[in-house]
Automatic annotation (TrEMBL):
InterPro entries registered for this protein in UniProt: ATP-dep_Glu-Cys_Ligase-2, CP_ATPgrasp_2, UCP005522
Organism domain of life: Bacteria
Pfam families: CP_ATPgrasp_2 (PF14403)
Protein name: Putative circularly permuted ATP-grasp superfamily protein
PANTHER family associated with the record: BLR5612 PROTEIN, SLL1039 PROTEIN
Domain (Circularly permuted ATP-grasp type) ranges: 71-448
């Protein structure tokens, strides 16, 4: 694996421009003062109650996501290019999703194999020929990007179903402003606190044509046992909308209403954090107690907007991800601004043969996996683990893709032994409304806290950082 790009010190050891003021501040700040503020940040997070549930881990079902007090910093110029690339990618994703549920021009053109779509378990035939309000499918996207050099960001994966993490982005900034006002005073940092207003505006803009001038928005949660429930309640509060569960909603004459103390109130837009399979027991899983009977009928009648749209899981599929450069070219007639990470599709015999011969060098992922589960990091795995994965690949090659083990860029991070570089990625949040696309200036930086680790997922022990975009 190549040497990781150091975002603070660059390739030649010279402090990069965006980090120069932070470097001066760190040289003036005693280590014990930094440790004190780190401890204070942890106490604040505990008091606020920011937790993340870990499924399958009885000892850590509710825990804090570790927070690192050293910010990650990007220059305005770096952000401008990244922002433009993100908008391009999300435009293409929305066009792709509309096409595969309507004309299917990209399939007829042979740019993507038909079986990859039609035999995909997250393809929703119920969405065929259904016109969603204003042709927006992905209202909220979390596009995971990584950096391996000074010049380019690479997209690692697209999160188009129910991307999470924005509450941590907002709380990270709040904590940093409270604990480090002196450091903030030395920088001009683009704000992230406008995100709730931007999200609410985007959601209202895609209300059905039958909605009133003040559309009613509600946030649908699976409930308190969901791993991201804190975020659901946090966002509902920030947006000023009702947090509802399936039992709080009812469908009458293809319209959705929520039960209130003053009677039924129509709901025009549902920001749903419930997966497709569970949103309507009359259409999908009949055993679901999380959804709303008849919700899909109201959706098909055009009386309610679901954000994100049903069927967007196709865009999350990691095999489909490998075709994103072609998708951008096909729909926009432009070259992709953001590159994909090189990807081998194990469903293709030649790619599978290569992957099987190089398992100890590659990262292998399930096409529908998330949270860092079900993946193999070859260089960090034992021979027994690799051989077990080899058998799995041979049995189910269609379920996996492989990528090179990237030397993710590093940022300075507080550790038990002082400041040290740790690998990071970035999840910017992209909002698509009726007329425009907005990217909050920053996003959620995730950091692999263990020395040498490349796994940044919070479910796998990763932490988070505040992400600063400088106003150049």
């Amino acid at each position: 694996m190549a040497v990781a790009f150091d975002e603070m010190n660059g390739g030649n050891g010279d402090i990069r421009q965006a980090y120069q003021e932070l470097s001066r501040w760190l040289s003036e700040t005693p280590p014990d003062a930094l440790e004190y503020r780190r401890h204070e940040a942890e106490l604040l997070f505990r008091r606020i109650g920011i937790t993340f549930a870990v499924y399958g881990d009885a000892a850590a079902q509710e825990r804090l996501i570790p927070f690192d007090v050293i910010p990650r910093i990007l220059s305005g110029k770096e952000w401008a290019r990244l922002e433009t690339g993100l908008k391009q990618r999300v435009r293409a994703l929305n066009l792709f999703l509309r096409d595969i549920y309507h004309e299917r021009d990209i399939l007829r053109a042979g740019r993507i194999p038909e079986d990859l779509i039609f035999q995909n378990p997250v393809f929703r035939p119920e969405m065929n020929q259904l016109d969603v309000p204003h042709n927006v499918y992905v209202h909220i996207a979390g596009i995971d990007v990584v950096r391996i050099d000074a010049d380019d960001f690479y997209v690692l994966e697209d999160n188009a179903r129910t991307p999470s993490g924005v509450s941590y982005m907002l709380e990270n900034r709040e904590i940093m402003m409270r604990l480090f006002p002196d450091l903030f005073a030395r920088h001009r940092i683009a704000p992230v606190e406008d995100y709730p207003d931007a999200l609410l505006s985007a959601l209202r803009s895609v209300a059905p044509h039958s909605a009133t001038t003040e559309p009613t928005v509600a946030l649908l949660t699976p409930g308190i046992y969901n791993s991201a429930y804190f975020e659901h309640s946090f966002l509902a509060d920030k947006l000023g909308v009702e947090l509802v569960e399936g039992r709080d909603l009812v469908v009458r004459n293809d319209e959705v209403f929520m039960r209130t103390t003053e009677g039924l109130k129509r709901v025009d837009v549902i920001y749903r954090r419930v997966d497709d399979d569970f949103i309507d027991p009359l259409t999908f899983r009949p055993d679901s107690a999380l959804g709303v009977p008849g919700l899909m009928s109201a959706y098909m009648a055009g009386k309610v907007t679901l954000a994100n749209a049903v069927g967007t899981g196709i865009a999350d599929d990691k095999a489909v991800y490998s075709y994103m450069p072609d998708i951008v070219r096909f729909y926009l007639d432009e070259e992709p601004i953001l590159k994909n990470v090189p990807t081998w599709r194990c469903r293709e015999p030649a790619d599978l043969a290569y992957v099987l011969d190089h398992l100890d060098e590659l990262v292998v992922k399930e096409v529908h996996g998330s949270g860092g589960y079900g993946m193999l990091i070859g260089p960090a795995s034992s021979k027994a683990t690799i051989e077990a994965f080899r058998d799995k690949l041979k049995r189910e090659p269609d379920g996996f893709i492989a990528q090179p083990t990237l030397a993710l860029s590093t940022c300075p991070t507080c550790t038990a032994s002082g400041l040290a570089p740790r690998h990071v990625d970035l999840r910017p949040f992209v909002l698509s409304g009726r007329d425009d696309i907005t990217v909050v200036p920053g996003g959620l930086t995730r950091v692999a806290l263990q020395e040498g680790s490349l796994v940044v997922n919070s479910s796998q022990g990763g932490g988070t950082k505040d992400t600063w975009i400088l106003d150049d």
